[in-house]
């Protein structure tokens, strides 16, 4: 693994073209992970629903067991062979007859070290634009999930989760240095909200934020915006893809985050006597 003087690492955001062929999608992901390794990356991030079309009518058809399914087996092997951390975007997961939109995380030994089920389901109805109801086909997760990459703590969300600042604030309270959201914003909403939300989550939580989208396929039933990006804690875009099939490689220096938190110490200036964000996860699960 490659670290930058113990202050950071190189990350790859893999903006893949998703087809109707699961085997092809997974094979492409494995190839691009290898290229990320060759380019010196410690962490590779895949898009939301990278192994299947983003279509409520197809989620159950493409769903597989985690971690025993073919996609997880391929990601585990890719992580182990390349000695990398992999955030496996998301895939449709089947568990107890329910389907979830689930992100997996693999360490350089090929172990599953985190799993995040999308907490906020994408149910929207915008007249003359986007109508989509994820809850018709999927169930929601109910936990916040993090993992350690060396000394750095990373929080996980999926797509629509990024709209909910309370969730990101809880990750900040848990000490996260970075937030990752595999996502597939549509071409109607993406132009206004994708970059704006990513920069806000980074700026308000003084953390790096990475968002990983599929590449745009104009003849699909759901057209992704693309524009995967990584943003620093100041809200500055460090790298942004176009809508096309492509990868981003960027070095992340967490020393920048420490300087920003010292210069604008919002963590210690919150008026918790007046307001606070409370983690109810344990109460939900009990």
**Would you report the number of β strands?**
15
Task: Quickly give the structural class.
Answer: alpha/beta
Element-level helix/strand string:
EHEHHEEEEEEEEHEHEEEEHH
Bulk shape = globular
**Mean pLDDT value:** 95
What is the strand content?
A: 25-35%
Low-confidence stretches are none
Number of helices: 7
**Major sheet details:** 7 strands, mixed
What is the distance, rounded to the nearest whole angstrom, between the alpha carbons of the first and last residues? Answer: 39 Å
Tell me the Rg in angstroms. 18 Å
Helix content: 25-40%
SSE blueprint and pairings:
Blueprint (H helix, E strand, L loop, with lengths): L7 E8 L6 H17 L4 E3 L13 H4 L7 H13 L2 E3 L3 E5 L2 E9 L5 E6 L5 E3 L5 E3 L11 E5 L2 E5 L8 H9 L4 E5 L7 H16 L2 E5 L16 E3 L5 E4 L5 E8 H10 L17 H5 L1
Parallel strand pairs: 1-2, 2-3, 10-11, 11-12
Antiparallel strand pairs: 1-15, 3-5, 4-5, 5-6, 7-8, 9-10, 12-13, 13-14
Helix pairs in contact: 1-3
Could you please describe the fold and organization of this structure?
- This protein is an alpha/beta fold and 286 residues long.
- 26% of the residues lie in helices and 26% in strands.
- The chain has seven helices and 15 strands.
- The strands form three sheets. Strands 1, 2, 3, 4, 5, 6 and 15 form a seven-stranded mixed sheet that branches. It has a six-stranded mixed sheet with strand order 9-10-11-12-13-14, covered by helices on one side. A two-stranded antiparallel sheet has the order 7-8.
- β11 (178-182), α5 (190-205) and β12 (208-212) form a beta-alpha-beta unit.
- The protein is globular and about 50 Å long.
- The model has no long low-confidence stretch (mean pLDDT 95).
């Amino acid at each position: 693994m490659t670290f930058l003087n113990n202050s950071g690492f190189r990350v790859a955001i893999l903006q893949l073209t998703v087809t109707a062929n699961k085997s092809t999608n997974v094979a492409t992901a494995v190839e691009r992970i290898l290229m990320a390794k060759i380019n010196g990356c410690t962490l590779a991030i895949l898009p939301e629903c990278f192994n299947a079309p983003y279509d409520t009518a197809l989620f159950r058809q493409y769903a597989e067991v985690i971690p025993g399914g073919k996609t997880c087996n391929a990601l585990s092997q890719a992580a182990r062979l390349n000695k990398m951390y992999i955030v496996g975007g998301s895939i449709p997961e089947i568990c107890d007859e329910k389907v979830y939109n689930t992100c997996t995380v693999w360490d350089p030994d090929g172990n599953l070290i985190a799993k995040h089920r999308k907490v906020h389901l994408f149910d929207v109805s915008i007249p003359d634009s986007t109508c989509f109801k994820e809850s018709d086909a999927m169930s929601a997760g109910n936990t916040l999930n993090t993992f350690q990459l060396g000394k750095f703590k990373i929080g996980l969300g999926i797509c629509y989760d990024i709209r909910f600042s309370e969730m990101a604030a809880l990750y900040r309270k848990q000490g996260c240095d970075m937030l990752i959201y595999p996502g597939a914003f549509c071409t109607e909403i993406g132009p206004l909200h994708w970059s704006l939300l990513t920069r806000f989550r980074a700026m308000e939580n003084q953390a790096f934020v990475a968002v990983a989208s599929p590449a745009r396929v104009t003849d699909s039933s759901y057209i992704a915006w693309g524009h995967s990006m990584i943003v620093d804690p100041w809200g500055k875009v460090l790298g942004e893809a176009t809508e096309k099939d492509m990868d981003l490689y960027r070095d992340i220096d967490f020393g920048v985050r420490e300087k920003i938190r010292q210069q604008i110490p919002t963590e210690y200036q919150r008026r918790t006597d007046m307001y606070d964000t409370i983690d109810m996860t344990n109460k939900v699960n009990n």
